[in-house]
Each structure stands twice: as structure tokens, then as C-alpha cells.
Amino acid sequence: MTTANLLKLQKSLFDYMKKKALSYEGELSNEFKKYNRDQRRSAKRDFEISDLKELLKSIQQSDLVFLGDFHSFDQSSRNLERLLRNLIKTKSRKLALGVEFVHIEHQNAINQYLDNLITEYEFLESINYHESWRFPWNHYRIFFQMAKKNNLKIIALNSSGTLTERDNTAADNISNFLKDNPDTILLVLFGELHIVPNKLPKLVKKRLPSARNTIIHQNLDEVYWKTIEDGKHEDGQIVRFNEDEFSLQTSPPWVKYESMIYWYENLVEDPEFEIHEYIMDTGLMAFNSSVPENFLYISEKISDALQLDISVSDLEDFNLYDGSRLEYMLDKVESLDKNPLRTFYKKLLTRGRSFKLPFRSILYCPSYSINRLSFLAGIHIQNIVMQSKDDEHEKVLESGNKGDIFLYFIYQMCMAYFSSKIINPYRKCNLYKDIQKELNSSTTSALRKNILETTLKCIDANESRDQFVKDIAKGKTLYHLHQASRLIGYFLGDLLYDEFYARKNQKLRQLMKTLLECPFNEKSFDSFKWTILPRADYKNLKKRFF
Q1: Which of 131, 196, 281, 528 shows the smallest number of beta carbons within 10 Å?
Q2: Using H for helix, E for strand and C for coil, what is the string for 419-456?
């Protein structure tokens, strides 16, 4: 797929999401519009691709670090958590947190909670959290747990008034804290529009000229589109505007707007529900009232991206169900002929897994998100292509041949994850070293270790060995093989996207032919696997930091 076509595909999804998300905002104040314009103008500046080493160096040399928060998107707070864990591990300087989600008048409640003088419930009640902030507490709870464990101070920065008045109050609190704690790095999580250089950072600099700042934006729309246009998006997780201003590009822009839509549609009136629990309990959609329509749209976009000749009528041949239809899905599972299949798919249901039911055009998604729907869209597309070649392909699941079933699962998981990365290029998964680390961990259960061992054996197996998949799969349950195939398929799918699709590698066409046709023989899988894996150093690959 050309860069121009990829850009067109992604922008259509972005425009749809942003327009819907902003429709909930109502009439915006002139001050908010100005803050938004300033952020967009700032994001259009020239930048360079950077890395974690440069970012951490800037942080370690700073007195104050601003990190932009898109309040409905938990990825914003997770990135602060990752940075904080890294800084705690290095133990080079004292650390403290400044948070926008608590009003300055409740500083005493923060202190009491950190000193274990009040419970979490009493803390949330005393700061009137669910009425004053309204975004999921689960996004921020971890920082208080880390602060208690590592003896970190947390200071409140929120206040009443206009955006400018709130920035001035926050600047006063930040400056006073830094004066009283000159040996401490203060990490501030604040709304993304406030940390543009001419806003809160400028106000602090005015009050405390000697303080060195690092500004870390997150997922700036304009930066994402620029990296796509330049063909550098696969390298652009961290970009640098100057020596002390960066942006973490860890998600495509439409995903953060999806979180905003979900918040408005499902949580704004009752934010005491945690977002993940709420989705699982209700099976509600994340971004539109017509999920099948969205699923078809995503399937069409993935098919177009891969230049597949699939008719719309074929793509429309599906029935999509969620967690609210568990009883119906259980009936469909019970109707499968073979007992091992019934047992296996029941387990997928109870574990909240997405899947396609064999021999039926039924797809199950326990709760809806773009990542999950694009994952299932990959399975749907693969099934259409396989069906056009051989209408009996799913009978491998009834055959009892564990080696063939294992290959079927691996190809399916690879196609599913690869497809989800076409829609969300910033998805990440465990790679070889991550899997190895989990295997060697003392906290990993014996059952999980067996799955991890199967995974690594399959990845490592040399093509000169005859029937190695059959040997590895022998005696394993379908669920065991499915779990191992998820790890293997994600690993291969991640590399397939990053090293072949994104880089327009000429070998992609042949790899896609294998992935879509799923030949159940060891030789084809060997060729597929070792074309994707960099033999010299695949064992050193690990999940990126952001």
C-alpha cells in the first residue's frame, strides 16, 4: 500500500472519530479555542526523531517535568507510570508528583492518604473526586500506590477560574514547591493544552527563572501525520522539538478520541464505574451506536490496505455478538459437534477472548474497541480468502491433528494482530525477551510456564527438524495451543507490520499469500517464520518502552 493511500485510510478514520468526539463538547469558549490553536501551532514546528536515552537524560537534568494528559485516555497516565518506574529504579534524585486532578484546597487530604491516616474511599470522598474530576480514578490510583511505597510527595495543582487563572495558580504552587525542595524532580501531569511552552511552563519560568524544565507532549495529531507523510512513523515513538521538549507518540490520534467518545457515552454521568469493568459487564460499544457498521468499515479499510480483491457482499457476511449475548453464544458453542471444540470455545468465552466460531459466520467480541474490532476483522478477512480456496478449511479443528491445529491458530493470530496494527500502528506486544523473562519469573504459574515453553520451542525450532510442530503440539489441549499461538502470532505479526508492511519490503506479497491461505505443512511455516524473523538477533528483541 502506498504512503498516500495509508494516509487517506487513516485520516478518514481520524476525521470520523474527532468529529464525533468534539460534537459532545458543545459550544467552546474563546479561551479554550485559543489554547487549542496554540497547541496546534506549536505541534507544527520542526522536530527530529529521538529516543528514550535522550528523553531520560533531559529529565535527569531537569527540576520540573511537564507531561500532557488527555484525561479520558488512560495511555497518558500509563506513560507517566512507565517513566516514574524507570526514575525510581535509577535512584539518582528525589521525585515528587504534581497532579491536576486534585484541587489545591485538598492538599491535606492527599497528605493524610499518603500517611495511611484515611482509607482510599475516605480520600475520594473528602476530595469530592467523582463530582470534581469525573474521569476514571483507575487512571490515577497507581501513582498514590507508588508514592506510598517509595515515599514520594504528591501536590495538588487544580483550582477554579478561567484556564489562564488556573495556570497561574498551578504555577504558584509549582514554584513554591521547587523553592522548598531544590533537590527534587517534580513531575507534573496536567491537561495537554496547558503544557504548551507559552502556557504553564512559561508562567513557572517567570516565577523561577533558574529552574530547568522538560516538556513532554503526548500523541500530538500534527506530529503523527507528519511522521506518516515522511515515512518515519515506525521510528517515531519519541520525537524532539528541542533539547528539553519532546512528544511521546504511542498511539494513533483516533484512538484517544475513541476514549473521549466512550467517556461521554458511558461514563460521564457515572464515573464511579471503572472503564474496563463497565465494558465487560455491559458489552457496550466504544465509539458508535452501529458496531456492525463500524466493523464492516474497518474490514473494508484493511482489505483495501492489503489490496485484496474481496467484494463488499463477502465482507458483509458476518454476525457480530458481544458480552451481552453470552447465553446465545453459549448455545451456539454447545451446538458444535466435537466435545473438545465445545470445551475449548467455552473456555474462550469465560476468559473474555475474541474469536470466530468455526463453521458459522459468527464473530464474538466481549467488549468493543477499535483494537478488538480490527483484530477480528483480520480473522474475518483471512477466513473469506481461505473459504474461497477451500470451503473445508475449518475442518482442521475437528481433525484431532494437533500439529495442523497449532499452525491454524498461529496463522490466525498473526493475521489478526497484523490487521490491528494496520489500524493502530502503535500497538505493541511481547517479543522474544519479554516471553523469556516471563518464563524465568518466580511469580509465573506452572501452567503458564508450560505455555511459554511451548511458545519458545516453536519459535526456536529449526526448519531442518521434521514435523517439529507436531512434536511440540502433541498432548497439548486446544486452549494451551491457542494461548501459545497468540504469543507466537503476535510476535510474528508485529515484525510483519514493522519490517515488511511499513517498510514496503518486496517479500510482503509472498508472506501475505502464506498468511491468507494457511497451508498446513511444516515446510511452508518454516519458510514463513524464518523470512520474518531476523535469525541473527531475534532472541534479543523486546517490547519497546512506550
Answers
A1: 131
A2: HHHHHCCCCCCCCHHHHHHHHHCCCCCHHHHHHHHHHH
For residue 259, the enclosing domain spans: 48-273
Q: Which of 338, 372, 397 is the last residue of a domain?
A: 397
Cβ-contact 358, 341 below 8 angstroms: yes
> Domain for residue 104, yes or no?
yes
Cell of 137: 480514578
Of 372, 397, 422, at which residue does a domain stop?
A: 397
Cα-trace Rg, the chain = 25
CA-to-CA distance for 314 and 316, rounded, in angstroms?
5
- 429 and 370 share one domain: no
Asked if residue 427 and residue 383 are part of one domain, the reply reads no
Contact in structure between 169 and 110 (CB atoms under 8 Å)? no
Residue 87 C-alpha from the chain's centroid: 22
Whether residue 538 is contained in a domain is answered as yes
Give how many domains the chain has, as a whole number.
3
CB 207 within 8 A of CB 171: yes
Instruction: Confirm if 367 and 323 have CB atoms less than 8 A apart.
Output: yes
Considering the domain architecture, whether residues 244 and 310 belong to the same structural domain is answered as no
**Under a CB-based contact definition with an 8 Å cutoff, are residues 14 and 201 in contact?**
no
Residue 251 and residue 235 share a domain: yes
d(CA 78, CA 75): 5
Amino acid residing at 447: L
Answer whether 520's CB lies under 8 Å from 396's CB: yes
Q: Give residue-wise pLDDT tens across range 457-503.
A: 999 987 555 557 888 999 999 999 999 999 999 999 999 999 999 88
Question: What distance in Å separates the CA atoms of residue 353 and residue 355, rounded to the nearest whole number?
Answer: 6
Pairwise CA distance, residues 89 & 75, whole Å: 21
Beta strands in 125-249 (DSSP E): 153-158, 184-191, 213-218, 238-242, 245-248
* Residue type present at position 383: N
Q: Are 335 and 29 in contact (CB under 8 A)?
A: no
How are beta strands 153-158 and 355-357 bridged, if at all? unpaired
The whole-number pLDDT of residue 466 equals 57
**Diameter of the chain measured on Cα atoms:** 74
Say if residue 335 is in the same domain as residue 417.
no
Give the residues across from 64 on adjacent strands. 186, 213
Judge whether 10 lies within some domain: no
C-beta of residue 395 within 8 angstroms of C-beta of residue 321:
no
In-domain check, residue 19 = no
